[in-house]
Every structure is written in C-alpha cells, then in structure tokens.
Design a protein that fits this description.
Length: about 375
C-alpha cells in the first residue's frame, strides 16, 4: 500500500496505492472538493489537467446535502462526480466543531444542529464510518474531536482520551462495513488522527496510543487553526518520531507553500488545504516568483500571463489584464481561471518537491523556496 522509496533527512519520497487511480506519488497535495466539486467552477475533469492525484471531499457536507444514501444510490462518490482517481473523505469532526451550533459532546458521539437548516443530527464514530462507506472513498478519516485553540490542558487531555476510544470504535465499524457483500468500496482504508492541541506531551501520548491500533495511515489534526507556524512545526517535530515509519503521514488542512515544504522536511507525506482555491477566488495567485494580487491597477494593461513559467490553462491562454477585467466585471470565469492556476501551482509544487527528493537536492530546494513563495512578486 505504501512504500518509502528514499529519504533525505526526515523528508520521505514514497508511493501509495489504493482501490482507485493506480499509484500515487508522495509527497502529495490533495485538492479539496468539499461537496464533490472544487469551489470556483472546477470539475473532476479539470483536476486531471492541473495534475491532481487525490481529491478530498467532506463527510459532514455530503451527509447533509445531497445525503450519503443518495450518493450510494448513484454508485458512490467516484461515479457521482465522475472522478476515477483516489478520494479521501474527512470524518466530519472538524465541521461538527467549527460550523455546527448547539453541540453536545458525549461518549457516544456529538449531537448538533445543521448549519443549513438547524435540524438536529447525531454523529459518532459508527455514523461517520457508515457515511464514508456509503460515499465509497478510498481513504476514510477516523471521527475525532478537534478542540478549540487555545484549549485548557485538562480539556485537551480528556478530548485525546475520548478520541483514542473513538478510533477503536471507528476501526471495528470500518472492518465490519468493509466485509459486507454490498459495500461500495470494500478496499476503503482508514486513517487515524492525532490530537492534543498545542501540548507536546499530549500529542506524543496520543500518537503512541493510536499507533497501537492498526490503521492504514495516520494524520496530525487540529493544527493550522491560528497558532504560530513555529508552534505547528514544534508539534510536528514532537509527534513525527512516534508515527509508524511504514505508514503514510498526513498533515491536515495545511497550508501555505512554505508550510508544505517545511512539513515535508519534517517527514509528512500528505497535505490538503482550501488556500489555493479560496485565495484564488479573491484574486491572490501563487507563482514561483511570489504572489500576485491580480486586482491591482498595475495589471490593467499587462499582456503577460499570471506567470510566464506556468503551464496551467489560464497562463497558456489569457493575460493578466484579461483576468483582472473578469474579476472587476464579476464574471464567474475569473474565479475558475484563478482557481485552476492556483491548483496547478500547488500540484506543481508537490511535483518539484518529489523531483528534488529524487535528485537528492531537497535541502537546496527548501533553502531557495521556503519562505520566499509568499512574498509579493
């Protein structure tokens, strides 16, 4: 399933295989299609063109709309959105704790009000596994509690202990569902999630506990939620030695180009973030020369592409002046072109990281680009 091909320091170059899409080359950036589509008018077919290897969708949102039973009836999420590559679904835990109101956490799970219409919903480990089984994703994430930051030590400790117990229940239910004769994807994998807020000792304790449960991979969750980047790096440094070396490692919801480079340097294999699509929809574009705010007046008559070194669909065909005009005219095409560009950049970033690892030059790559890609072009 996962093989480390070579290392440079703690950075890992690997290959990952699952039920759909052949072999994924790691480190990999996963493109976030929360509700089965990338925000900005980007379809699954577009993802192929921008180099996406894994698409990520959200359990919470798809459970609410259109409903995971409808997705199952339509043949699973792959058929529903016409994507033949790997799909990871997150557990819904983060959305339950960030979007839903009137939450009540118990050992059984969480009762909460839908952010759409307020109706009451219960989700626990078994329910999350059942929803993700209906979706038929290749990787299902365990149901966890993502605590608020900052959190008290006492609450974070209790939450870690509960999340560890929830993982045992996730594993048991996941195994049961995969064994059913009518399961959408009997090859679905399960990743456990490390929590513990910004307390290094809790993070290490929790990682040691969940590593005892035989998951297909392990994620570090609950970071990039407002803490300084250096604190995030310190937590990764503390947790990484306790993560199984033969399983993929996933840093959830991260992040900037620099965060990804620094995460790879600390032994992380999988990344995802809404930043490329969200920033793109607001006119902030990533390039190898730095960031471009396409709304700036200086681009009104600029005939160049967003980046002359980029091969994305937007840069191959359109000028900065035209894309700026689309934004100013509130044309939906502006969002689509900007998001396609940013997703291409992030996938190219991961590809260049892999190439540097293949060539043994990742340290030079890190020194050149980490911290520089977010400066203004």
């Amino acid at each position: 399933m996962f093989k480390v091909l070579k290392t440079e320091g703690r950075a890992r170059r690997g290959e990952f295989s699952c039920a759909h899409g052949g072999v994924v080359q790691t480190p990999v950036f996963m493109n976030v299609g929360t509700q089965g589509a990338i925000k900005g008018g980007v379809s699954a077919h577009d993802l192929k063109e921008v180099g996406c290897q894994i698409e990520l969708s959200n359990t919470y949102h798809l459970h609410l709309r259109p409903g995971d039973h409808i997705v199952r009836q339509m043949g699973g999420l792959h058929k529903f959105m016409d994507w033949d590559g790997p799909i990871l679904t997150d557990s819904g835990g983060f959305q339950v704790f960030s979007l839903a109101s009137l939450r009540k956490i118990r050992e059984e799970g969480v009762t909460f009000a839908s952010h759409i219409d307020g109706h009451r919903i219960f989700m626990g480990p078994e329910e999350s596994m059942q929803i993700q089984s209906n979706l038929g994703s290749d990787i299902a994430m365990a149901f966890d509690e993502c605590v608020e930051n900052p959190a008290t030590y006492e609450y974070a400790k209790a939450s870690c202990e509960r999340t560890a117990r929830w993982l045992e229940r996730c594993k048991a239910e996941h195994d049961r569902l995969n064994a059913l004769p009518d399961t959408v994807n009997p090859g679905q994998m399960l990743f456990g999630i490390n929590q513990g807020a910004t307390f290094a000792d809790l993070r290490v304790w929790h990682m040691d506990q969940i590593a005892k449960i035989d998951c297909d991979g392990y994620a570090i969750g609950g970071l990039a939620v407002g803490e300084p980047a250096e604190v995030m790096y310190e937590i990764i440094d503390a947790v990484e030695p306790h993560m199984p070396k033969d399983k993929p490692r996933y840093l959830m919801g991260v992040g900037t180009p620099s965060n990804i480079i620094e995460g790879v340097a600390r032994g992380v294999d999988f990344f995802d973030c809404v930043m490329p699509s969200r920033n793109g929809r607001h006119g902030k574009l990533f390039t190898w020369e730095g960031t471009v705010n396409i709304l700036n007046e200086k681009y009104a008559t600029d005939p160049r592409p967003i980046s002359e070194s980029c091969g994305c669909p937007a840069c191959r065909h359109f000028s900065r002046a035209y894309i700026r005009h689309l934004f100013k005219a509130d044309e939906v095409l502006a969002l689509r072109l900007a998001v396609l560009h940013n997703l291409y950049f992030y996938n190219e970033l991961a590809a260049r990281i892999r190439r540097a690892l293949d060539e043994g030059t990742f340290a030079d790559f890190r020194a050149r680009y980490s911290g520089n890609l977010e400066k203004r072009a």
